[in-house]
Amino acid sequence: MLDIQAQLHLTQGQSEQALATWEQAAASYTQTNNLDGSIRNQINQAQALQELGLYRRSVALLTDLTQTLPAQSNLAMQAIAIEFPPPTHKKLR
């Protein structure tokens, strides 16, 4: 429920409220050991931070996330691929 509320805040341009709501949801995911929910939550928090112009905090959060993810989490790997696509290399002519 908190995730939906936070997403609604974000779509309405209320990034600070979205971030605060996702931070509340994070505690719930931690209490229930919900790894996939926690991963989604941190990605959503990073998005809200970007909307607020807090790019360094967003990158730090995503970097921490990538360093603490278990290798067996398929959702985690998909999330990383979306957030950090491989760089494209163009040939110089």
Strands, helices and their partners?
Layout: H1 2-11, H2 15-31, H3 35-51, H4 55-68, H5 74-83
Helix pairs in contact: 1-2, 2-3, 3-4, 3-5
Q: Characteristics of this structure?
A:
93 residues; mainly alpha; 5 helices; 73% helix
Structural features, described:
The chain is mainly alpha-helical and 93 residues long. It has one domain: Serine Threonine Protein Phosphatase 5, Tetratricopeptide repeat. Helix content is 73%, strand content 0%. Helix 2 (15-31) runs antiparallel to helix 3. The radius of gyration is 15 Å and the shape is globular.
Number of domains: 1
Give the CATH topology: Serine Threonine Protein Phosphatase 5, Tetratricopeptide repeat
Q: What low-confidence regions span 5 or more consecutive residues with pLDDT below 50?
A: 86-93
Overall structural class, as computed from helix and strand content, comes to mainly alpha
What is the number of strand segments?
Answer: 0
The portion of residues forming beta strands comes to under 5%
CATH class: Mainly Alpha
Helix count from the secondary structure assignment: 5
| Rg calculated over all Cα atoms | 15 Å
Order of helices and strands: HHHHH
- What is the CATH architecture term? Alpha Horseshoe
Overall helicity = over 70%
Morphology call: globular
